[in-house]
């Protein structure tokens, strides 16, 4: 635990959506460290926002646990190719699915393309997200509010709806919420509102799908060192990012991936409707 970097970090900013290869320090997505044990042998997983950050770490972990992976991402093609390289190095197949999940047609397309390639979906991870920092309510453009909700929560509804006909009993849906779901950062107001909605949607959907034997859970990360941070926060916030946690640092994507593995695996067969915090010591309510 103690070998991970702590703030202050070098000042840095990138254009949205960010490039993991240009971050300093580089996030650890488990490329060299994650060791699998066959917990997801022969499962098929669709993961959104899997080009970098938490999504890449989950894709690598799933592949090393034995799953084939479909990677949905916006337009970060080089980062996505790197994710695919690690998935394939684990001996698994990887399908790259670029496109904007704010578009309803793209939400359906990634499901259809995954099913066409692999025949079914056993694990659906809704992880893609958009955020920006704002100083006041008046600073939030209407189009940013709509975009944040379209990408962060409406897309989850659309993808789940499209995927369900291709998910059998024992399948798992995992949605990425946030510590902001119950402790909202006011400068991330639209993002935090969607993360609260994701937690609520997850709890309701778990009850709705229980009789079909499909489990639904959410993961609530705290401050995790990903391209989303350096592309959407001011330099001063990036410099001290994660320093206010009890562990005194941001988490690395590889530290979040294991809870997704548990929730995706048959070992999590009686876990549904829950929200799991990975927050560096900050409790979620």
UniProtKB/TrEMBL annotation:
An example of a GO molecular function for this protein is: oxidoreductase activity, acting on CH-OH group of donors
InterPro entries xrefs: NAD(P)-bd_dom_sf, Sc_DH/Rdtase_CS, SDR_fam
The answer to whether UniProt assigns keyword DNA damage to this entry is no
Keyword tags: Oxidoreductase
Region Disordered, residue ranges: 1-28
What organism, scientifically named, is this protein from?
A: Pseudomonas paralactis
| Record field: compositional bias (Pro residues) | 1-10
Name assigned to this protein: Dehydrogenase
Q: Which domain of life is it from?
A: Bacteria
Q: Which SUPFAM superfamilies match?
A: NAD(P)-binding Rossmann-fold domains
Q: Name one Pfam family in it.
A: adh_short_C2
Family, similarity comment: Belongs to the short-chain dehydrogenases/reductases (SDR) family.
